[in-house]
Design a protein that fits this description.
Layout: E1 4-8, E2 11-19, E3 27-32, E4 37-40, H1 55-67, H2 70-73, H3 86-91, H4 95-98, E5 108-114, E6 120-125, E7 130-137, E8 141-144, E9 147-151, E10 155-158, E11 163-166
Parallel strand pairs: 1-11
Antiparallel strand pairs: 1-2, 2-3, 3-9, 4-8, 5-6, 6-7, 10-11
Length: 196
């Protein structure tokens, strides 16, 4: 797995998935180059699925709304950013890509998968890039490193500059809807965190 860094909306991202399955055809998944904020996963101290609006989702949504331009948002599939699952993070075989130098808080960045202990969420240790699917207590602050699905019919890619530019006349594409592969429990990691 070779991970390519690219520019989109004036920011550096890693292409972590070239989504060529039927449900995701025409998208690539981009991961922020670094952490953009720090947050508790859920300040209430209880693990909740990402789709149930934990504290960290508010941090992701606030960053997206404040830092992604209106034109660029038109190219984002589902018009939202999200956190990776443990499966998605483990699929990034280059540990250097999983490292995060700006992880504020306690030296890691949150994933949206449940940890192996009640009220723990999985994370990545930012200094070494290891996925810690056992997780950590959701009340503690760790880095926030969002991802997005970029609709390829809404952008033009320059291979010279490795930049995605928003196409002012994009081809319409239906929003993909993820289907859970299994229901998360207190002892297993989620294979998905919300519809994308």
């Amino acid at each position: 797995n070779t991970t390519t860094d690219v520019t989109f909306d004036g920011k550096t991202w890693y292409i972590i998935a070239d989504n060529s399955t039927a449900k995701d055809a025409g998208t690539v998944t981009l991961l922020a180059e670094d952490c953009v904020d720090a947050s508790a996963y859920n300040s209430s101290g209880t693990f909740v699925d990402y789709s149930s609006n934990p504290t960290v989702k508010t941090a992701v949504d606030n960053w997206y709304n404040s830092n992604i331009t209106a034109d660029a948002k038109k190219a984002v599939n589902g018009n939202a950013m999200f956190l990776l699952t443990t499966i998605e993070a483990n699929a990034i075989t280059n540990a250097d890509v999983r490292k995060c130098t700006n992880a504020s808080g306690n030296g890691g960045w949150w994933l949206c998968s449940r940890g192996s202990v009640v009220d723990f969420a999985a994370l990545v240790f930012s200094d070494v890039g290891n996925v810690f699917d056992s997780g950590f207590d959701v009340k503690f602050p760790f880095g926030v490193r969002p991802a997005l699905k970029l609709n390829l019919s809404s952008v033009i890619f320059s291979s010279e500059s490795k930049t995605f530019f928003v196409d002012k006349e994009p081809t319409p594409m239906a929003t993909a809807t993820a289907t859970p592969e299994s229901t998360p429990t207190a002892t297993t990691s989620a294979t998905w965190c919300s519809t994308r």
